[in-house]
Amino acid sequence: MSYLLLVDDEPDIRAIAKMALERVGGWDVTVAGSAAEAVRAASAARPAVVLLDVMMPDTDGPATLEQLRPLLGDDVPVIFLTAKGEDDTLLALGAAGVIAKPFDPISLPREVAAITAR
Amino acid sequence: MEADRLSALQALNILDTPPEERFDRLTRIASAAFDVPIALVSLVDEERQWFKSCIGLTGSEDDRAVSFCSIAIESPQPLVIPDTHLDPRVAHMRVVTGPPYLRFYAGVPITTATGFRVGTVCIADTKPRQLGATEIALLRDIARIAEDELNHKDLSEALASWRESEQRFRAVFHEAAIGMTMVDESGRIVEANRAFAAMIEIPAGELRGVPVSAITHPADRGGDNVDKLFSGELDRYRREKRYVRPDGTWFWAALTASILRDRDGRPDVTIGMVEDISERKEVERLKDELVSVVGHELKTPLTSIRGSLGLLEAGVAGELSVEAADMVRIARENTERLTRLVEETLDLERLHAGRVELEVRSVTPVDLLAATAQVVQPVADAAGVALEWQAPGDLELFVDPDRIVQALVNLVGNAIKFSPPGASVRTMVKAHGANVLISVMDEGRGIPPEQLEAVFERFRQVDASDHREKGGTGLGLPISRAIIEQHAGRIWAESEPGAGATFRITLPLPQGKPPVAVYDRRAPRRAQLARAVRRLGRRVETFDDPEVLAEAEGFALVLVSGAGLDGVELDLPVVKVDAENLDASVAEALA
What we know:
The complex is a heterodimer.
Chain A: E1 3-7, H1 11-24, E2 28-32, H2 35-44, E3 49-53, H3 61-72, E4 78-82, H4 87-92, E5 97-100, H5 108-117
Parallel strand pairs in A: 1-2, 1-3, 3-4, 4-5
Helix pairs in contact in A: 2-3
Chain B: H1 2-11, H2 21-34, E1 38-44, E2 48-55, E3 61-63, H3 69-72, E4 79-81, H4 94-97, E5 104-111, E6 117-125, H5 133-175, E7 179-183, E8 189-192, H6 194-200, H7 204-207, H8 226-231, E9 236-244, E10 250-261, E11 267-276, H9 278-313, H10 322-352, E12 361-363, H11 365-383, E13 386-390, E14 397-399, H12 401-417, E15 424-432, E16 435-441, H13 466-470, H14 476-486, E17 490-495, E18 501-508, E19 516-519, H15 523-535, E20 540-543, H16 546-551, E21 558-560, E22 574-576, H17 582-590
Parallel strand pairs in B: 13-15, 19-20, 19-21, 21-22
Antiparallel strand pairs in B: 1-2, 1-6, 2-3, 4-5, 5-6, 7-8, 7-11, 9-10, 10-11, 12-14, 15-16, 16-18, 17-18
Organism (chain A): Solirubrobacter deserti
Pfam families (chain A): Response_reg (PF00072)
Keywords (chain A): Phosphoprotein
């Protein structure tokens, strides 16, 4: 199973996305609630994909990406989760794609697969 | 005719008034000049004759049936009866056969300014006599004087009552609890009452001559229609505006203004009633803020609930029993409805607060209908309702397509909801003068006349049970109206109960003039500027990037309200507008 790192500060969203990605998408999911947790997780094992929430307290999505990128290398796709649009700005930061919040958990794995397949 | 005569008599306001020297003088002259014991100024009422002045008779009135005067007023000519015993019309009368035993009568009718013979000046004697032509002429002259006095009284009383009503008006004006102003054609205050002076914190005396614009909030200066009241284009108008006090603070007020005309019907001053609505505005602001905060706070938990239920329902967390799956479905559907309600409430709140920036571009009505059809066709199929679309291919609109489609989806979606299976919903677009007219027609049960406006209010549905049965949020039409109004268009409903309902939208067609570019880095200011341009019926496109603007073509000019374009090379003329006086300065720039 491929290893996916999910970074979101809201525990409920983490739990829902984790269940959908594991049970429906067949991913092996590790969750992180902050930039620090994400950096720890990515150091321990390099994920195949990262789902990264944009709006987080303290260190937001783009800032977290900056910290993660050296650990991930250039070829690991990072997908932003956002409620705000701004797709172009986010893609310019080197993201592989953007998924709008609120997402439908059942179709989330499909959306992730579509982006990583590009 | 007699009724008209009687009302002309009534209008003189003279019946049953006390004796007056100006009439008594005339009867004294007549009595002396003709050497008769009896002289009268007599008015013929419905059932009596009444004496305004009387010499030689007791009492101030008599039966009309026994009166010589009622015969005299039948003709404009003087009535002379030399001997009553020889005249069959009067010989039997009580005043002839009994006291005062009249033998001689001569009367000349008196006429109102409007031409009605309301009475006579007459003389009478107890012995027969003849009247020569000169004497008749004299009696006529006296009658003319009485006539003038009578009609003059009419005028002077009108004058008095006018003065009285003016005094009453002044008293009401100055003592009213509501603020009142009088404004002249140049937009200056002629008079303001105490209540208004207290609101604006300027003594009433010092307000005279002050231009209204000087005490109006800069953003609200464009909306006063004093000129339209004077030109007769408007009878009255009502608006909400902010007045500014000398210390710079301001208050919200509801102003109702109408024109006051002088006695010749010419516009004199506008009269404004000003009600302080600061408190209501503050409550509205707090309410909107509360709605916004609560709405945003609800979104996060709703998303989680919706997500969890979706996973449960799909069996992701383990297979559910049929009953459990049913319960989860109900929970999920209601969560979705609640989410929709929250989202639409927030949307409406943003539209009302003017925080929605339209992304205007050129589209054809065909594009708009196609995009609408894509959303509503599945709904129509499920309801067994046919959809018909009709639009000319050669029209161009300058609108925010997403927002207009949102409004159309609401209208067509509603029409489907209220249509029986087998019915059809028709959407038609056509040019209509300077506007495009969009009509959405259904064959449903229609809307009662008193509800045609109410359906555009929040949470108002024609039938209270609709809310549950039809699954609407009750916000679709208010949102549609807010969207259309932001496009400077109109939306309304028409219906004959039982014969279906028609919702109509008008949107202004772009005028022949080229569009206007608006540049500002700040989104709210940009939107504000764009709205001001749109209000003038001009197409507008907004820019927040000077480099994109430098590439733009086909614009008449660029309007800017702040700095930020310095050093950018533009082919277009750049006009800086005065943000303090936005509407006027935009109008000037585009003139």
